[in-house]
Design a protein that fits this description.
This protein has 182 residues and is mainly β. It contains no helices and 18 strands. It has one domain. The chain is 0% helix and 41% strand. The protein starts with a strand and ends in a 9-residue tail after the last strand. The relative contact order is 0.12.
């Protein structure tokens, strides 16, 4: 399927006990003046998101943090005006993996992402944090991010300037031990 000059808006009015289920495969979204795909409700469950192309839009995808793990790494998200996956704040309550994509994940301005489940970040992932945005790992959550020399994981600020004192974006850890593996 090809969608041109329009946005694929995905939301639901269903109850959390009966979420909407959707699979998007082999779809092209292009020429949207805003978003290629906008998932605005975490009760939407993507059965699969495979072999899609989101290009020539203003932005490829905007979605809640809880649904990021549903994105397929075999899809193409580049070639847009703003080549980033826009992640808006929401608690991560389901164990998931954020996959390496061909564009970075963008953590929105002032957003707080509470990690209350196991979150794995694949090698090669780039996360850009805007001013005041942060990941917060609770005692029921965990973060596993193991990069390699060839595919490091990068947590970076949107503004590429050196900061003295407190950083404008950060990771907050509560009741968790962090071990650095070199």
């Amino acid at each position: 399927m090809t969608v041109e000059y329009g946005v694929i808006n995905i939301g639901t009015v269903s109850f959390p006990s009966d979420p909407a289920r959707l699979s998007i495969r082999n779809t092209v979204s292009r020429y949207a003046s805003d978003l290629g795909i906008y998932i605005y409700d975490s009760s939407v469950q993507l059965g699969s998101f495979e072999n899609n192309t989101l290009t020539l839009n203003d932005r490829p995808v905007s979605l809640p943090a809880e649904t990021v793990g549903m994105l397929g790494s075999d899809s193409r998200y580049s070639g847009n005006t703003d080549d980033r996956i826009h992640v808006f704040d929401q608690d991560i309550v389901t164990a998931q993996t954020w996959k390496k994509l061909d564009v970075p994940y963008y953590m929105q301005d002032g957003s707080r992402y509470d990690i209350d489940a196991a979150l794995i970040i694949e090698a090669g992932v780039l996360l850009e944090f805007n001013s005041g945005s942060k990941l917060q790992i609770s005692s029921s959550g965990s973060l596993k991010a193991i990069g390699t020399m060839a595919a490091p994981i990068l947590f970076t600020g949107l503004e590429k300037t050196r900061v003295t004192g407190m950083a404008s974006s950060f990771i907050v850890v509560t009741a968790l031990t962090i071990s650095w593996i070199m």
